[in-house]
Fold this sequence. Notes:
Blueprint: E1 3-9, E2 23-25, E3 31-40, E4 46-48, E5 54-57, E6 63-66, E7 82-88, H1 99-116, H2 128-134
Antiparallel strand pairs: 1-7, 2-6, 3-4, 3-7, 5-6
Helix pairs in contact: 1-2
Amino acid sequence: MTQSWRERLEDWPQDRLSASGLAFQLKRAPLVSVEAVRVRDRTGALTDWNSAEYRVETGEPGRLVAILPFALPHPEARGGGIEIDFTAGYGEAPDEVPAPLRAAILHLVAASYGADRGEGGESPPAPDMVDRLLAPFERVRL
């Protein structure tokens, strides 16, 4: 379901930056929009990054891309140096969530239901079916 998120970072994590250092991948997907990007100045105040200096690539993965000649701004003070407000998700209604994701949830609930009824005491591992249903939605990282 579509939700609003705020991601707080000390700085731009290297593992989510593009090779050029101009693009940053957001953690939640699919990205719908970015409402604000704020960076701490040396006084500790958050200031908005001018949206004319970057573009937003929606979808999976969603990215912020600095428009040349600009670059991703670096915080001058630590302690939540960067804040990104964004919206991500598949839609407003349950029917907009892809069917394989809905089916995976149903399989997990069914497996947990058996454990709650005294069949072993612990939640069983996710059925193989869940792994197969979720595989197309997992991000591959090298």
